[in-house]
Every structure is written in structure tokens, then in C-alpha cells.
Design brief:
By secondary structure, the protein is α/β, with parallel strands linked by helices. The chain contains 13 helices and 10 strands. An 8-stranded parallel beta barrel has the order 3-4-5-6-7-8-9-10, surrounded by 6 helices. The protein has a two-stranded antiparallel sheet with strand order 1-2. The radius of gyration is 18 Å and the shape is globular. It starts with a strand and ends in an 8-residue tail after the last helix. The model has no long low-confidence stretch (mean pLDDT 96). The structure holds NADP nicotinamide-adenine-dinucleotide phosphate (NAP). NADP nicotinamide-adenine-dinucleotide phosphate (NAP) binds next to helix 1, strand 10 and helix 11.
Length: 311
């Protein structure tokens, strides 16, 4: 496993990291039941043994924080948990300054308790939009939590270009989480470069697009014809290279030198091992990258899972 310094933080993160939604929530394209605790702990421990040292979680992720805390992994100073707060922002909810602060503070205390630590390495806002960021109140609250020692580094997990650019332009965040995959390359236009210039840590999610870039693609809801057609082309490219589609998708993400770490979401040990193996292979040749760049879809209705039709 290779490691990179996460932007201006002094955290060294594995190039592939683990997202914990699948071990805490019913989340994904399949009828995914939350795995039993023993299974979840096994996935976390195996990820650690395979060299993964960054775990993405969230106050919103059901049992995930609690399980990460129970794993004991966070007692290792080289293991980093990035958690998220204020998921209500993603639903467009906003409150007055005092209420916002009290809600966020309550969630942070809850996350610290569940994770079993005294300071969060990274705290991100969960899905703020451009306007919410530009008001400045959220940033002030996050900075206050940092001054008070509850949090070391602050960030935001965003959807789309506008919100990400607002986070970067504020000049006040250390880390940003974005989505970048074979199918969704919108962040490659401006955001990755702007974050690099600002020396912001870049955490990439949805490299398998919630399972669309896996054999689960046939469970996609109806109405995503452009996505399905493009997946067929990606599948053919993977076959021509003698690899499976998830491996091609992972190699595409980790071949991008601007990204510090890419999250994989899995609750399955075999898949985890396959993902780590793919991430450790050489970067894809420029010719293949160019071919895959041609598969990018810009329509957010096709490539943002939050906008997919309900099944
Ligand atoms: N707004 C936000 O901040 C936000 C939004 C979405 C996600 N996230 C974060 O990103 C993480 C990843 O979520 P995602 O949506 O981006 O998921 P993803 O990693 O793109 O895809 C996960 C899906 O792919 C399957 N899978 C994983 N490896 C596989 C392999 N080698 N072969 C076949 N199938 C494989 C998983 O099933 P199995 O479990 O069966 O392996 C699961 O169904 C989440 O856990 C979360 O931490 C954050």
C-alpha cells in the first residue's frame, strides 16, 4: 500500500481507504442488510492489515462509528478516522447560528463517544451547498470546534462543482471529499486543480459509483439508460485488458495523481482484498486513461446516486 500526505494536514493516508456506510447502514444497490457486528469488525481489521489507515465514517452512518470505535483500531496513532456531521445540510435544512452550533456540537460529542477518542482527526460537513458555505457560519462553528480541541482538521463532503469550489474558495478548510470515477469526471474540470493549488487534502468517494461499476449494475433503477449504455462500454474495455470492471474503476481513480486517497465501500472480505490488489497495481497507461476519459457523463441525474430514481 502506498501513502500520501493529505494536503496541508500532516496526516499520511493510504491511497485506498475504507468507507464505512456498508458496515453501519442499509446502503447500496443490493438489498443490503447491515452486517452482524463480528463481520463488520472483521472487515475493519482486515482492511487495517492490508495497509488501509484511513476510515471514512459519519454521524449519519448508523452503527458505523460505534463499530469503528469497538474495533480498537483508532488507538493506533497511525489510523485516521474522518467523520461527518450535519447531514441535514444535504437535505437543504438550515437553522439559525445558535441552533446550528448546538446541533453540530451534539453530533460531535456523540461521534467522539462512539469512536472512543478525545479528538476527531478530521470532521467534515456532510453535503453543504454553495449558499450554506458562503454564509460563513458553518465555517466559524467548525473553526471554533478546532480551537477547542474537539477536532484537528476540518473539511466538507460535497456534491457537484459549485459547492466544492465554494469550500475551496473560502480558504478555511483543510480537506474536501468529492466524487470522481470513470463515469463521473466532473471534478476533473476545475475542482481537483483548485484544491491542489490551495493544498487541500482530497478524499475521493464513489469510485464504484455505489456499485454501478460492479456486477450490481443490473440493479440500477430504471431511467438511467445513458449510464447503463456507458457501463457496457466500460465493461468491454475491462475485458479487453483482462480485468474485471471494479478493478478497472479502482485503477482509474488511483491513477489520478491529484487525489490523495480514494474510498472503497465494501462489507465483503473477498471484495476488499480484490480492491486493495487493484489499487496496488501500476497506474493505467495514458492511452487507456484517455479512452476512459471519453466515457465521462456530465448529467447529474445519471451520475449522482442521490438523484437516481427511487427503486
Ligand atoms: N455524501 C457523502 O459524503 C458520501 C456519499 C456516498 C458515499 N460516501 C462514502 O464513500 C464510501 C463508498 O461509498 P460509495 O457509494 O462510493 O460506494 P462504492 O465504493 O462506489 O461501491 C460500493 C459497492 O460496490 C460493491 N463492491 C465493492 N468492491 C467490490 C468488488 N471488488 N467487486 C464487486 N463489488 C464490489 C459493494 O458491495 P460489497 O459490500 O458486497 O462488496 C457495494 O455494493 C461510503 O462508505 C462512504 O464512506 C460519502
Amino acid at each position: 500500500m502506498k501513502y500520501k500526505t493529505l494536503g496541508k494536514t500532516n496526516l499520511k493516508v493510504s491511497r485506498l481507504s475504507l468507507g464505512t456506510a456498508r458496515i453501519g447502514l442499509s446502503y447500496g444497490l443490493d438489498e443490503h442488510a447491515i452486517p452482524p457486528e463480528a463481520k463488520a469488525l472483521e472487515v475493519l481489521e482486515r482492511a487495517h492489515r492490508l495497509g488501509i489507515n484511513f476510515f471514512d465514517t459519519g454521524n449519519y452512518y448508523g452503527l458505523a462509528e460505534e463499530r469503528l470505535g469497538k474495533s480498537g483500531l483508532l488507538q493506533d496513532p497511525n489510523v485516521i478516522a474522518g467523520t461527518k456531521c450535519a447531514h441535514f445540510l444535504e437535505k437543504g435544512e438550515y437553522y439559525n447560528r445558535a441552533e446550528l452550533e448546538s446541533k453540530i456540537r451534539e453530533q460531535v460529542d456523540d461521534s467522539l463517544k462512539k469512536l472512543g477518542i478525545n479528538t476527531l482527526s478530521i470532521l467534515m460537513l456532510h453535503g453543504p451547498n454553495k449558499e450554506q458555505i458562503e454564509k460563513g457560519e458553518l465555517t466559524e462553528i467548525m473553526e471554533k470546534l478546532r480551537r477547542q480541541g474537539k477536532v484537528r482538521y476540518i473539511g466538507a463532503s460535497t456534491r457537484g462543482e459549485e459547492a466544492a469550489l465554494a469550500v475551496i474558495a473560502s480558504g478555511r478548510f483543510d480537506v474536501i471529499q468529492i466524487a470522481y470515477s470513470i463515469l463521473d469526471q466532473r471534478m476533473a474540470k476545475k475542482v481537483l486543480k483548485a484544491a491542489t493549488v490551495a493544498n487541500i487534502g482530497i478524499v475521493n468517494r464513489s469510485i464504484l459509483l455505489k456499485g454501478a461499476l460492479t456486477p450490481l449494475w443490473n440493479r440500477l433503477p430504471k431511467g438511467l439508460e445513458q449510464l447503463q449504455k456507458t457501463l457496457g462500454v466500460a465493461q468491454k474495455i475491462a475485458e479487453s485488458l483482462g480485468m474485471d470492471l471494479p478493478s478497472l474503476a479502482i485503477r482509474f481513480a488511483v491513477s489520478n495523481p491529484l487525489i490523495h486517497t480514494s474510498l472503497i465501500g465494501t462489507s465483503n472480505i473477498d471484495n476488499l482484498e480484490k480492491c486493495v490488489k487493484a489499487s496496488e497495481a501500476e497506474p493505467l497507461p495514458p492511452k487507456i486513461i484517455e479512452q476512459l476519459e471519453g466515457l465521462a457523463i456530465d448529467d447529474p441525474d445519471q451520475i449522482d446516486p442521490a438523484r437516481w430514481p427511487k427503486q
